[in-house]
Every structure is written in structure tokens, then in C-alpha cells.
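Notes, p. 3: input format for complexes.
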Amino acid sequence: MALFRKKRIRDYLREEKFLKEYRALLEQRRGNQPTKSVPKVKVEEIKKETMFEKLSRTLSKTKTSIVGKLNSIISKSDILDEDTLEDIEEALYTSDIGVKTTELIIDKLRERIREEKSNQDLDIKKLIKKEIIELINKTPIVEVDYKEKPHVILVVGVNGNGKTTTIGKLAHYYQSLGKKVLIGAADTFRAAAIEQLETWANRTNSDFVKHQMGSDPAAVAYDSYKAGEARDMDIILIDTAGRLHNKVNLMNELEKISRVLNKLNSNAPHEVLLVLDATTGQNALSQAKQFSKTSGVTGIVLTKLDGTAKGGVTIAINQEMDIPVKFIGLGEQKEDLEVFDPEEFVKSIFS
Ligand code: GDP
Ligand code: MG
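Output follows (351 residues plus guanosine-5'-diphosphate):
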């Protein structure tokens, strides 16, 4: 009886093996590779690597500038003494990392020297990278599952910083996550501004609400909300004007838009994104401080990081502002927006 059972099992296994081989052969005939030889796909790993490569490529000017300065310091002396620390301080400061952040890093390095028995043979670049990573606020803010819809995002900032372009990129980003997007043209100051936004709406297949040039921006915001609600939109992106020559008027205008939205929905605007131009370096930081005082900013988008050596300001803003940097702009195409990951950012700059 036992022998019979053993034979049955052997036959069964043989049959299984035969079936597997037969299936593989069929797959091969169909032109498919046998699934057996395909390794388990590590999607996340591939994605991470591509992201790192993209950051390294687009942030190359910032990277070359910071690493270049540090390399020339290290080539003069590989001992981490007070003179070298002073040079590092200057290098970081002139890389737009900001006074406060630079001071913190130098203090940490000084502490490190005290801890180590020798200040020779230290990998200075690696040390700085490590200290910055420890110092920064690390959590990337990725919010996509909003509690209610429509989720209204008001986009503010000084003209030329990249608001309209960022709205186009955000529309693409949210759509790639399966969200329905409506764009409202509340920068009514110039006809060209409305046209530019409409081009982005067409390019990204987003719904679009506009009024005539010169009309009341708050009225556009009102209609955008109503249309978004009626059409069951997930996201409403509202563009605004940013003429700083009359700061009081600008802030009043933004406040009025917020007030109108707030009457329609007590949670709206759910988000106020401040767009800053990284090429302006420390000026971006001071704009962040100015805007955050008045217009209820909940997040920052730092644009044009691809074209500047001043990307160090991202670290200064991350460090000195309570408001998180949520996205970074890395070019003029709709795909050139990334969720800001502080640690990945620092790693790609100091790699
Ligand atoms: P707005 O006045 O704030 O609406 O700014 P715009 O969206 O019109 O952008 C001003 C200029 O900056 C345009 O020429 C954009 O193409 C350019 N721009 C915006 N974002 C980026 C970016 O991330 N990288 C680069 N290289 N250019 C950008
Ligand atoms: Mg604009």
C-alpha cells in the first residue's frame, strides 16, 4: 500500500514537472520568455534609481558648484582644523545654504572633531553630507488621498517665478494619479497670462475656467469652484497674479480669493502653494518669509532648480521655514516636477 502511494506521488511529481516544461515551451513558441528566468521585479528600486539619476542630472549646476568648492578646500588640506572649517563655512554660505544652516553644520563638524581622536583622514565631504542629512526635515510630503473633493489648491507667488508652468505640471502630476483636474485662470491681469494657462490646460487635457482679461480674480475662483463641484472634479488649481510692485494690493487680492472660496467651502482653499524661483537664491528665502506672514501658505514649490547653481537654497528653506517644500521644478516640460524628498536631494548633490 505504501509502495503504491509512493509511486502515485512520483507519477504526480513527474506530471507536474512535465506540465511546467510544456507550459514554458508554449510560452516560448508564443515569443514570450519563460517566466521562470525573469527575476522578481524590484519596481521601487528601479524607480528610486531613476529619480536619483534625474536629480543628479538636473541639479548638476548646484552639485558642481558645491562639490567643486569643497574639493578645492580638501585638495589644499585634508585636516579638519579651524582654517579648513572657516573655508567650509564660506563655501557653504556662498552656495546659498543660508547663514543659519551653515552655522549649524559648522558647529556639528566642530563637535565631530572633538569626538574624534584625530582630525586627519576624515572624509570631509561625507561628513558634511551626513550632518546635513541629520539636520534637515526629512519627511517628503506626498498627499494625494484628500478627504473631500474638490480639493482646491491656490497657487501664489511673484510674477516670473513659475506659477503658471507649475500649474501645468501639477495638473499632469495629479492626472497621472488618476485625478480629474480643473484649472482656473484667476491671473486676469494680462490676456497672455490667460492664454498661457489655457495652453497648459489643453496640453494636459484639464478642464479650464476663464473670464475676460481685467475681470475680478475672486469671481474666477468662485466660478472655478462651482464648475469643479458640478463636474465632480478631484482637484482645482487656481492661478493668481503676482505683481509685487503693489504688495498691499496683491495680498488683498489673494485674501479676497481665499475669502470667496472659504464661503463656498469652509475648508477651501485646502492648500496655498507658494511658488519660488530657486535661481534668485537668498531672495527666494526672503520671499518665503514675506508671503508666509500674510497669505496662509501651506506648502512651497521651488522651481528652476535645473538652471541654477543656487539650489543650496532648498536646504536653507527646508531648514529655516516651518512650511514644507512639497514639490521641486526641474525643467519646463510637464513631467519636470517631482515630489520633494529632502534626503534624496542632499544625497544627489553630495554624491
Ligand atoms: P509665472 O509668472 O509665475 O506664472 O511664471 P511662468 O510659469 O510664466 O514661468 C516663467 C518662466 O520660467 C517661463 O519661461 C517658464 O518656462 C520658466 N520656468 C518655470 N518653471 C521652470 C523650471 O522648473 N525650470 C526651468 N528651467 N524653467 C522654468
Ligand atoms: Mg503666470
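Strands lie at 151-156, 181-186, 207-209, 235-240, 271-277, 299-303, 325-329, 337-339.
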